[in-house]
């Protein structure tokens, strides 16, 4: 078996099919395809973490949780690469995108659902899309990372997450797990912030290609937290 065979490189490297003859469209495609690959890996890690935590093996889940936040950091840095695309560059090929938009990424919505941000309204943007809709519907019904972590807290006899933090020595596994969740939320917030800046830099206040409000919509997501209770308790410590 060769390197190319193992990685299926002929298939992978033939998946970039620009619809224009403009040089910069390739970057736009590669950036977004790479993000989808990283999203696939994060979903893979979150699934393992959910399984381990549900089985009361939180320490074994730490590596998967840490990996998720590291991947998010890499994804955040990739916005700097996309930001080399100027408004003039992007404007030349934007029309070929039609109504496609990152807003329609089923994997990103699935990641939100798997973490615990379960807004059923997003299902309607994927109706009729086959596997994407089915995966989102399943994620909406399945226990999220936050739900299995909170159930683990209850099984351990901790009355609240505030109590876990106030008695970190007693419930150290839960405390450490909670901080891993905050790492993920922190990295996700950073990703959202950099996304807003990059989009504003490239298209300003124009609507998104998929019909969203563009920067205005993205700005409205900045306060989202997958694990809000872990942020609120800090005020009470």
Description of the molecule:
With 237 residues, the protein is mainly alpha-helical. It has one domain: Methane Monooxygenase Hydroxylase, Chain G, domain 1 (Up-down Bundle), CATH 1.20.58.480. The chain is built from twelve helices and no strands. The longest helix is centred in the C-terminal third of the chain and has 32 residues, at 172-203. It starts with a helix and ends with a helix. The mean pLDDT is 94. It comes from Sphingomonas ginkgonis. Substrate binds at residues 28-32, 90, 94, 209.
Topology of this protein?
Blueprint: H1 3-7, H2 9-13, H3 25-54, H4 58-82, H5 87-93, H6 106-115, H7 131-141, H8 145-156, H9 161-166, H10 172-203, H11 215-220, H12 228-236
Helix pairs in contact: 3-4, 3-6, 3-8, 4-10, 6-7, 8-10
CATH level-two architecture: Up-down Bundle
Task: From the 3D structure, determine the CATH topology.
Answer: Methane Monooxygenase Hydroxylase, Chain G, domain 1
Biggest sheet character: none
Overall outline: globular
Count of individual beta strands: 0
Cα-atom Rg, whole angstroms?
20 Å
Topology order in helix (H) and strand (E) letters: HHHHHHHHHHHH
Characteristic terms for this protein:
about 240 residues, mainly alpha, 12 helices, oxidoreductase
């Amino acid at each position: 078996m060769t390197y190319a065979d193992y990685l299926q490189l002929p298939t992978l490297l033939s998946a970039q099919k620009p619809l224009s003859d403009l040089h910069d469209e390739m970057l736009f495609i590669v950036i977004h395809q790479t993000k989808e690959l990283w999203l696939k890996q994060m979903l893979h890690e979150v699934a393992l973490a959910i399984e381990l935590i549900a089985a009361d093996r939180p320490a074994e889940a730490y590596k998967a949780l840490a990996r998720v936040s590291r991947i998010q950091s890499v994804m955040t840095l990739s916005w700097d690469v996309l930001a080399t695309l100027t408004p003039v560059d992007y404007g030349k090929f934007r029309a070929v995108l039609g109504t496609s938009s990152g807003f329609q990424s089923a994997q990103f919505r699935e990641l939100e659902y798997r973490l615990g941000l379960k807004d059923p309204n997003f299902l309607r943007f994927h109706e009729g899309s086959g596997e994407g809709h089915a995966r989102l519907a399943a994620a909406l019904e399945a226990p999220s990372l936050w739900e299995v972590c909170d159930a683990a807290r209850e099984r351990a006899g901790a009355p609240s997450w505030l109590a876990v933090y106030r008695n970190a020595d007693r419930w150290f596994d839960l405390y450490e797990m909670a901080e891993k969740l905050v790492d993920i939320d922190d990295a996700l917030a950073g990703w959202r912030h950099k996304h807003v800046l990059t989009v504003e830099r490239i298209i300003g206040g124009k609507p998104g290609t998929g019909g969203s409000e563009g920067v205005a919509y993205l700005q409205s997501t900045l306060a989202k937290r997958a694990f809000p209770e872990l942020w609120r308790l800090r005020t009470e410590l």
